[in-house]
Structures are given as C-alpha cells and as structure tokens.
Write a structure and sequence with these properties.
11 helices; 312 residues; 32% helix; 3-stranded parallel beta sheet; 6-stranded parallel beta sheet; Rossmann fold; alpha/beta
Length: 312
C-alpha cells in the first residue's frame, strides 16, 4: 500500500479535478485514511467471487480502474464492473481483459515497485516526470517510549527472507552501547515469545529492550515515526518508516525478484543493503536463497553511523 499511494499524489497533481478512490482490504484502511490524496475508500475482499467484487467496483462509478497487483479474479471483476478504462499489465495470460495495457517488465527490476505503479498512469495520458513519496499524516500516538530508540523489525512475514537474528542482536547491542538508543523489537503477536527470548539474551549487556507486537497499524506507524533509526528486512514497516522520513536501513536479497532495485525503501534518509558476495546473474531467483545472511553486521553498523550522524 505504501508503494501504491504515490499514484494518488500524482493524479492529484496532474488531474486535480479527479476523485481518487482506493479499493483496499479492510486492514489497510487506517493507513489509507492518513493520506490526504485519497478522496474515498472502497473495501474489497479479493477472496469473494469476481461478480461480488464487480458490484463494489461498479458502485463507485469510476471512469478508470487501475490494478497494480493483478490476479485473474480482480481483473475479471474489473471487466464485469463495466468500468470504461481498465489499466493493467500486458504480460499476463489474462491481460486481454484490460483495454489499456502497460508493457513494463517488473521482473527485470529496472524501476522501484512504486515507480512501476506510477508509470501505469501513462495509460491515461499523465506525463510523469517525478516519483513522489506517499503523503501520510499520522495521528499523534501516545508513545510510552520517552528515551531515544531504534526499531528493529526482525521478521519479513514471508514476503522475502529474513536477516540473521544473531546479527540483529549484534546491531542492537551496538546501537545501545555506542549510540545510547534503547531497542524496540516490532513484529506480529506470534513472534512475541521469540522476541522476548532475544531480549533476554541482550539483558547481560545491559541493553534496554521493548517488545511491541500488539500494535494497531497506526500505533505501529506512530512508533516508527518517533524512532531515531529503523532496521528492517523487505517488509511493510520498513517501507512505512522510510516514507515517513525516518532514517531507515533496508536489508534485501540479491535475486532480482527480491532486490533493492525493485523493492528498496524510498525516502530521504534511507540506505538499502544487499549481499555483495555473488553476481546478480548467479543468484537463484527463489525464496530458498539465503544470500541475505552474507550482509555483515559491520555493513549495517556503518550504515547506522551514516544515518545517525546525519541526524545529529
């Protein structure tokens, strides 16, 4: 969603009289509501039959429909909705269901995913000359963390491989002892017990650790927004932190499909790291690749020095 919201900003700039409606899953509603570039929200359950999804789309009476992350069911729903302009990739077997096609090979990672999304607007004649970050106005969060802190988001939720937990611990110890930053581990509630174990392992070093795994999406955004530094693998919280202007370090696999070129965090204070131990064309394009573990602790610490010194 963070990588799709910039489309709204570009539409607002080039077509100021247009109403921008986002069809989204319900759990992302609080985040989309923080974007002043979005005028209306339609909740879509992608698991419903295409005919039911089509009713939701038809109800908003749109002139143009964009599907940045297509599935056959969504694209069929777009056809059934009878929306006059339907825009999507020209490279899927069901692309004939679109009546305006975009011929960008995302798998080659020539652009960031957000840029690919924005480039879809060429199909309706929008002359694109910039790729803005999303505009997000996050409500004030009553943060109980009063001392400077760094957020470490250890898990990626399966979207990509995770970095070594041992190295996250080493970075945590360095951030506390050298930068005086308390450590906040974020994640899903199912990760809580594991993160408590990691925190216990850091206790002998005197590191102050907080565990936040039961936050709402907006509470998480508030915690990220208040951080001095965020370190994350390829996952939503990293994208969100970077978009909010927080100094952020991204950890990415080498394979093109998961690379920093396509999925890297976007922001003014961002350093995206990837393994340098092998050439990209030697890297298997699969989730079983463990090359991300070859990103060294010292590389992350060096990036942290650059970002935190800049902040100071």
């Amino acid at each position: 969603m963070v990588l799709t919201l910039p489309m709204a900003a570009v539409i607002g700039k080039h077509l100021p009289e247009a109403k921008v409606i986002f069809g989204i899953r319900d759990y992302t509603r609080p985040l989309v509501e923080c974007s002043p570039d979005v005028d209306e929200i339609a909740i879509i359950d992608p698991n419903l039959p295409a005919s039911e999804i089509a009713k939701t789309i038809r109800a908003v009476k749109a002139d143009a429909l964009f599907i940045p992350s297509p599935s056959f069911r969504l694209v069929l729903a777009g056809l059934l909705s009878r929306t006059p302009i339907r825009v999507g990739t020209g490279y899927r077997w069901y692309s004939f269901l679109f009546n305006r096609k975009v011929y960008d090979h995302r798998k080659t990672a020539e652009h960031n995913e957000a840029e690919y999304n924005i480039r879809m607007l060429r199909a309706i004649g929008v002359d694109i000359n910039d790729y803005p970050l999303p505009t997000l106005v996050i409500p004030t969060y009553n943060n109980t963390l009063f001392n400077p802190y760094a957020v470490l988001h250890v898990f990626t939720g399966g979207s990509a491989n995770s970095w070594s937990v041992e190295r996250f611990k080493e970075v945590a110890a360095w951030l506390y002892m050298e930068k005086g930053l308390e450590i906040v581990f974020t994640g899903e509630n199912k990760h809580r017990e594991f993160l408590l174990t990691v925190a216990a392992q850091l206790k002998p070093f005197g590191v102050i650790v907080h565990i936040h795994t039961q936050l709402t999406l907006i509470e998480l955004a508030g915690v990220l927004q208040g951080a001095s530094l965020v370190v994350s693998g390829s996952t939503g919280p990293g994208h969100l932190a970077a978009a909010l202007g927080v100094p952020t370090i991204g950890l990415f696999q080498r394979a093109t499909a998961f690379s920093k070129e396509r999925w890297g965090f976007r922001g003014k204070n961002v350093i995206n790291l990837e393994p340098s131990s092998l050439l990209r064309d030697e890297c298997p394009a699969c989730k079983d690749c463990d090359c991300i573990t070859s990103i060294l602790t010292n590389q992350v610490i060096h990036a942290a020095k650059q970002l935190t010194n800049h902040e100071q």
